[in-house]
Amino acid sequence: MKTDIEIAQEAKLKHITEIAEAAGVPDEYLELYGRHKAKISLDLLKDDTKKNGKLVLVTAITPTPAGEGKTTTTIGLADGLKKIGKKVTVALREPSLGPVFGVKGGAAGGGYAQVVPMEDINLHFTGDFHAIGAANNLLAAMLDNHIYQGNALNIDPRRITWKRCVDMNDRQLRFVTDGLGGRVNGVPREDGYDITVASEIMAVLCLASSITDLKERLGNIIVGYTYDEKPVTARDLKANGAMTALLKDALKPNLVQTLEGTPAFVHGGPFANIAHGCNSVIATKMALKMGDYTITEAGFGADLGAQKFLDIKCRMAGLKPSAVVMVATVRALKMHGGVPKTELGAENLEALEAGLPNLLRHVSNIKDVYKLPVVVAINRFPLDTDAEVALVAEKCKALGVNVCLSDVWAKGGEGGTALAEEVVKLCEQENDFSFSYDLNDTIEKKIEDIVKNVYRGAGVNFTPAAMKQIAQLNSCGFGKLPICMAKTQYSFSDDATKIGAPENFVVTVRNLKVSAGAGFIVALTGDIMTMPGLPKVPAAEKIDVDENGVITGLF
Predict the structure, then answer these.
(1) pLDDT of 231-259, one tens digit each?
(2) If you write DSSP's letter for every residue of 38-70 in order, what string do you get?
(3) Which helix (H) or strand (E) is 296 found in, with range?
(4) Least buried of 181, 253, 291, 421, by fewest C-beta within 10 Å?
């Protein structure tokens, strides 16, 4: 069996100008990065002659080690729509180097449903993440320099909230002490690093609508507090202009292609368990102008990525999805039913029935909370039995939702045509898209609505520290911002061990902080890492390059 990278390397890629022409992107808007990548000028968004297409969100059940295949389904669905004669574009996130070298290798789809050139996309691509890291660390340097040079803003070094970042899993950097070595080497203080995709600048870039908006949002970033507890911003440090200069090219979406030549806009990549988990607003809007259908995805399960896509991104950007695809596998559902990963090959209808409530809860949320039409896409594995697939279809049908088998990993677009036909039907339906909470409610009520309406929990426990922070957020005028829940991706609850569809649980919110640049409040539950570590056997150990520059082992 060929690996993903072998399939990608054997593909005959079209020149990126051909992809742009197929998408309807005029040459004057293209900035070429070699033969197979390009950035697109933001001026394209000013073209009012192009009508927006239909927006389709691909999301999934709660993740398991068995895998679901959300990105693969997104790409295969787009190629399936192309196969049935539709003009379609894809809008995806960029992979982070941390997971690429850490847990799983590449993140550009799989099998015959990939975006290419996959090596470039998975590695440095067009330098967007490096620019974000540079802007983040410029702000950190200017902050510490301000304190060293006399601290005119009266910043309390014990209340600095801004961290440096690096785009690699490196647990050694979670907590550091810096500024050591004597007076000329800075002011000693406790510090730490985040991974680049956890930086607020990543969220800012992905939610900004223009360079002007980007600069405004960057200026609003809060880096710490004064001795009398007043917030200090990047604008106070006069850093936002220089940060914008570093990010002006990174703000432009990247154009690549699928293995079957479908235009793909790959741009931005905030994590979904600590940020909002979606690609950039600019890339999505650009893709909508270039296709009759735009297929996009959101990170992790629908309780995280889809919830934030719908309640944060769509609300901020004025987007209205036409349909949602819920991705699941029989194997993953059996894991939710209590079967260990080593025993997933055997038919087990009892375990499947026990795990199905996870899928049904996600489907019900999309249908009943957000009022959007939804189809379930089952990534079929060779050992899945007809009886298992029939059971999934039966349970979904009871909710009025159809199930389509997806075979895009093995067959590319051809394996996604049935799903494509169903998506076209759903997109023709009118929908009453709604949010899961009212923006004008209190911070506590918004969080409670997410927990009760989406997670189906019993309620929320706010720690005394969280209540104090809510009071401070309200006093600073942030009470009407949307909520970004920082929560484990492995459960509807805040306890990763509660798989399936747990009930009667209470979510504990231990801390809240404002991402004033991004424009949302982050509610932290459980132990959420903003700097992951490498596993015992990192994917990096299998990655190599030969004397001809050919990379192997990336996935």
Answers:
(1) 999 999 999 999 999 999 999 999 999 99
(2) EEE-GGGGG-TTSPP-EEEEEEESS--TT---H
(3) strand 293-297
(4) 181
CB 95 within 8 A of CB 106: yes
CB atoms within 10 A of CB 107: 22
Q: List Cβ neighbours of 213 (8 Å cut-off, separation of 6 or more).
A: none
Residue 272 annotated as catalytic: yes
Whether 217 is a known active-site residue: answer no
CB 299 within 8 A of CB 93: yes
Residue 371: active-site member: no
Query: Is there a contact between 83 and 420 (Cβ–Cβ < 8 Å)?
Result: yes
Q: DSSP characters for 172-198?
A: GGSSEEES-SSGGG---EEE-EEEGGG
Convert the pLDDT of each residue in 124-166 to its tens digit: 999 999 999 999 999 999 999 999 999 999 999 999 999 999 9
Find the catalytic residue in 162, 409, 492, 555.
Answer: 409
| Residue 505 annotated among the catalytic residues of the structure | no
Q: Is 381 a catalytic residue?
A: yes
Whether residue 331 lies in the annotated active site:
no
208 catalytic residue (yes or no): no
- Which entry of 64, 71, 72, 294 is annotated as an active-site residue? 72
